[in-house]
Amino acid sequence: MSLELTRQEIEACGKFPPERRRVFIFSVGNDFEAHGPALPPEVDSLMARMLSNQLAVNTGAYYAGHIPYTSDRVGEIARAWSPLHIDFELFLEKTVGLIKEAMSKFPWPAERIIIFVGHGGLIPLLMMGDDLSKKIGVKTRVGFVAGVGKVDLPKNLEARDAVEKILAGAGEHAYILEHSVAAAMGVLDWEKLEKMNQEAARDPEALLRKHPALAGLGGYQLFGDPKKYGCLKEVGLEFVLNDFLSRKKMVVSKELGEILIQAGLKTAELLLL
Questions:
Q1: pLDDT, tens digit, for every residue of 210-234?
Q2: pTM here?
Q3: Which side of the chain, N or C, has fewer Cβ within a 10 Å radius?
Q4: Does 153 fall in a domain?
């Protein structure tokens, strides 16, 4: 009797169907972007990488790697807070090239590609699944870390009204959702958050001048040239700025962050269908 196992015998082991490992997951975010003093500059990428890895663990898909490039729907002005920004078409070219190169090095072929996005500036990518499928040569779907659909918020959540509006599509950058998810991931600096909130209580505008990326890139909206930064309001970031100026506080809920992570994973699993 031969002790040499066939590929089919090995693939039949475990709880996941054999074809699941031929689903390759790639994460993409922004590896160096300002989010204020309490969040690491790579927080978008950390969220995408963490959720991509967890999706792989939960489903048996293969986390193939992280895409180190980034772009932003607002264009070249993003360089003010995101030095790694490149033109979107160049971003697409580099991303497709990286995925193709990665696939060529694996011992089995990919039957589906999932790209997990952690950066709001890359939202246009979410609608490009069919185009990417043609460019890559493999069926490709794109998901976002925030997930979609109804989220059951904590009953006593502070700033519940603001969170509901953000989730409904108002958008944000470096505000309640991102800080809360960072808290749930363990990458939020609570000491810097406390100091930041002390400054916000005294003078929120002074804080935004010091840290312009906070509250929907609020400092750029308030103090930047309207001709240059007016597009930030057009993409929906004015709401979080006004909410912060009124609230004079960065609300953070670790429980909310945990709920958002689970919602993102639940939505991501739909990409496997």
A1: 999 999 999 999 999 999 999 999 8
A2: 0.94
A3: N
A4: no
28 and 86 co-located in one domain = yes
Q: What sign does the dihedral 36-254-162-147 (CA atoms) show?
A: positive
Output the pLDDT for position 84: 96
Q: Are residues 53 and 123 in the same domain?
A: yes
Residue 86 vs residues 18, 28, 91, 225, 266: alpha-carbon distances, Å: 38, 14, 6, 22, 31
Q: Which residue has the tokens 């979410």?
A: 126
Please indicate, yes or no, whether residues 112 and 38 belong to a single structural domain of this protein.
yes
Q: Give the pLDDT band (50/70/90) at residue 155.
A: confident
Q: Residue 6: inside a domain, yes or no?
A: no
**pLDDT at residue 149 in the model:** 61
11 pLDDT exceeds 90? no
Tell me, yes or no, whether 1 lies in a domain.
no
32 closest CA partner among 74, 86, 93: 86
Question: Looking at the domain assignment, is residue 245 inside a domain?
Answer: yes
Instruction: Tell me how many domains the chain contains.
Output: 2
100 with 170, same domain? no
Within this chain, do residues 250 and 266 fall inside the same structural domain, yes or no? no
Residue 225's domain comprises: 160-259
Higher pLDDT, 145 or 105: 105
CATH number of the domain at 106, please.
3.40.50.10310
